[in-house]
Amino acid sequence: MNGKASGAILDKQAQQTFAELAEQYNDPKVLPRDFQLKVGDKVLTADPVVSTGAPVYSGATTSDVMGFFRRLAGVEDMPSAAMVPGKGIVYSVKITSGPNAGSAISLRNFSTSAEQTGAVWTIDVKNPAINNGRFVELKFK
C-alpha cells in the first residue's frame, strides 16, 4: 500500500465526522457557542462570545482546517481552488455516492462576518442528515 487511505476508510471517517456534527446541529438544546469539534488530535471549543449564528473555533492551524475539510469530504487531497474575484478562494467537494451522497462541502478564506468573528476560514456543509439538509457553517479564527 502506498500510504494513502482507501476509499472505504475515507468514507467511514467522513461518515463519523458527519454524525458528530449532526449530533450537535440537530439538538435544539445545544447552541453554537457550546459546540465542540475534534480536529486532528485537538478538541476545539467554540468561542462563546462570537459564536452566535455559527460556531467559531480558535486553536486550529490552516493545516488543521484543511485536514478537517478533507476528512469531512472523504478525500485524500485538496480539490483545486477556485478564485472568487474580490473575495478569496474556495475549495469545493460534492459527494455523489456512498453513505454521504447528496452532501456538499466547501472551504473558503472569506466571510461577510469575518470582521465580527475574526474567522479566517469557513467550512460550509450541506448534508441531508444535518439541520434538515440546510447549509451550516463552521468558522475558524
Description of the molecule:
The protein has 141 residues and is of the alpha+beta class. It has one domain. The protein has 3 helices and 8 strands; from the N terminus they run H-E-E-E-H-E-E-E-H-E-E. It has helices at 7-25, 62-73, 114-117, and strands spanning 36-39, 42-45, 56-57, 81-84, 88-95, 103-108, 121-126, 136-140. The protein has a 6-stranded mixed β-sheet with strand order 3-8-7-6-5-4, with helices on one face. The protein is globular. The N and C termini lie far apart (36 Å). The model has no long low-confidence stretch (mean pLDDT 92).
Q: What would the average pLDDT be, to the nearest integer?
A: 92
Extract low-pLDDT stretches.
none
Q: DSSP strand (E) fraction?
A: 25-35%
* Rounded radius of gyration (Å): 15 Å
Question: What form results from the Cα inertia axes?
Answer: globular
How widely separated are the two ends? 36 Å
Total number of beta strands = 8
| Cross-sheet strand order for the largest sheet | 3-8-7-6-5-4
Query: How many helices in DSSP terms?
Result: 3
Structural class per helix/strand content? alpha+beta
The gist of it:
By secondary structure, the protein is of the alpha+beta class. Helix content is 25%, strand content 28%. The model has no long low-confidence stretch (mean pLDDT 92).
